[in-house]
Structure formats: C-alpha cells, structure tokens
Amino acid sequence: MIEATELSGLEASDLVLRYGDRDVVHGAALTLEPGRILALVGPNGSGKSTLLRALARLHPASSGAITVTPSDGPAADALMMKRSDFARHVTLLSQSRPVPHGLSVRDVVEFGRHPYRGRWRAADPEGASAVERAMELTGITALAGRGVHELSGGQLQRVWLAGCLAQDTSVLLLDEPTNHLDLRYKVEIFDLLHDLARVHGVAIGVVLHDLDEAAAIADHVVVLSDGRIAAAGPASEALDADLLSDVYSIPIVTHTDPLTGRLRTRAVGRHSERRNSTTERSIDP
Ligand SMILES: Nc1ncnc2c1ncn2[C@@H]1O[C@H](COP(=O)(O)OP(=O)(O)OP(=O)(O)O)[C@@H](O)[C@H]1O
C-alpha cells in the first residue's frame, strides 16, 4: 500500500448479504477508486460492518458481484481470486480482533506480509522494510518488542493498522479505525488516510459513526439504512438534514462551518435547547 506495486479499486454490485435466512444487506452497490476515500455511515445495525467484511471476502455474498479493478489491466472477479492474490489487493482493519498471547508487536505487524510469503515462508525481500515503514507511519516503532497483550486499546489499534499497511495493498478497508484512539492519534490516523489516498493512490473505504469526520475526510459518503443505500455522493449532498433525521430517527440539523467550509451535523436531543438557554442566561447579565 505504501509501496503498492499497482493501483486498483474495488467494485461491488447488487450485493445481498445474510445471516442464516435473514437478509441484512439488500442489493448494495459501491465503488472504491484509487486515490479516493469513501465513508460508509449509518445507524447501529444498518449493515456497515457486514458490507465491509463482504468486500474483504470475510462474509459470503448470497448474490451479487465484487470486482477488483486494476488501473492498467483487466478487472478480476474478487470472489474467484486465489486467496493470496486477493490479499495482495485488499486488506481490512476490522472492528475487533482476538489479542494473540505471546506475540510481540513486530510479530503481529509481520503477519501482514503473509500474502508474499507463500506456503514455505519463501523469501520476502520487501518484507523487513515494509514492516519498519508501517510501524513508523503508525507511531509504534518504540513498541516493536513489547507483547501485544500488554498494550492499551489505542496502541493495539495502531498495531492492527500497521499490519494492514505492511500488507502493501492498493485497497484499504477500515471499520471504525479511530476507536480507542486519543485526540492526537485520531487526527494522525485521518492525516495518514488522507496521505495514503492522495499521495499513494490507495482506494479507501472506511466505516465511521461520526458524520462530521466522514464529511471532513471522504470524497464520497454512502449512507446505509436498514441494509439499503439511502444516499450516496459528496458529503454536501449525501448528508442531507431531512434524510439523516429520517435514517437516524432523531432531528438532525446541518450547517457549513465558516472556518473550514465543511459540513457539520448536530443531532437535536430533548435537552439541547434548554442547555443553550441556560448558557445564554448565564452570559446575559
Ligand atoms: N453474527 C451475526 N449473526 C446474526 N446476525 C448478525 C450477526 N452480526 C450482525 N448481525 C445483524 O446484521 C445486521 C447488520 O449488522 P452490522 O454489524 O453489519 O451493522 P453495523 O451497521 O455495522 O452496526 P454497528 O454500527 O452497531 O457496528 C444487524 O441487524 C445485526 O443484528
């Protein structure tokens, strides 16, 4: 990814995803393009993680197609690709993973090189430098020798991300990547995603709960509601106040931040107005 050998995107069409006999995603379509960031937003249970996992081939598609689209070659059916070939194109930072005991940070990041090693751990000449770069970019070089079981949630999150970066894919999928991160690392991860897309041409799909973060980082926002795409487009179009109020079942107002020019959203709770009037009273003599 940081040294991705070829750029490629990922396209999904008519995807139907289910658990048992219950459909939870009903005919979704989206396109991840090299150099662009797509944010997937929507209420709890709307199907975001399932959709992302399906794009990473970790959840079976009941019907529909997923295609890897290299910029300089023929498109390939992702569901038919060899596992290691697919893993050279697409990686996923999932929401939660079991923490392996007895492994160091470096061991876990090195695991990201699995598609390049082959069955007999064949030579991976790029491996060592890819691992060092990934640890540097995520700010975990100083933790390399520590056991992963002794890390904080935020440190661990950066280790998982480093493993994905070490995989050197041209498509990066992330499910709530800033979970557990403090303010500094949150900003740094968003800066890193921005650079990966803009400088290195990585195609990024990211699930976010914070609509303002989605508006700030994404070129394209997809709003999922009950497993269906309710809106898609640039944040200024997809994050429409009436649509969001309907999808989240709570009044949501939007405005443009005069400093950044970016869209901001605010859900209006029962006490929102009262708090404002209290503040106004305490300011007014
Ligand atoms: N392992 C599972 N078995 C059965 N149903 C599941 C399973 N995982 C998720 N679901 C159901 O599938 C639907 C979509 O879940 P999913 O986790 O994809 O939503 P989400 O939008 O990512 O939610 P959240 O914002 O809470 O993470 C929900 O109705 C959920 O209850």
TrEMBL record:
Residues 270-285 have a biased composition (Basic and acidic residues). It comes from Arthrobacter crusticola. InterPro entries: AAA+_ATPase (IPR003593), ABC_transporter-like_ATP-bd (IPR003439), ABC_transporter-like_CS (IPR017871), P-loop_NTPase (IPR027417), Siderophore_ABC-ATPase (IPR051535). This is ABC transporter ATP-binding protein. It is a peripheral membrane protein. Gene3D superfamilies: P-loop containing nucleotide triphosphate hydrolases. Residues 265-285 are annotated as: Disordered. One of its GO terms (molecular function) is ATP binding. One of its GO terms (biological process) is iron ion transport. Residues 10-251 form the ABC transporter domain.
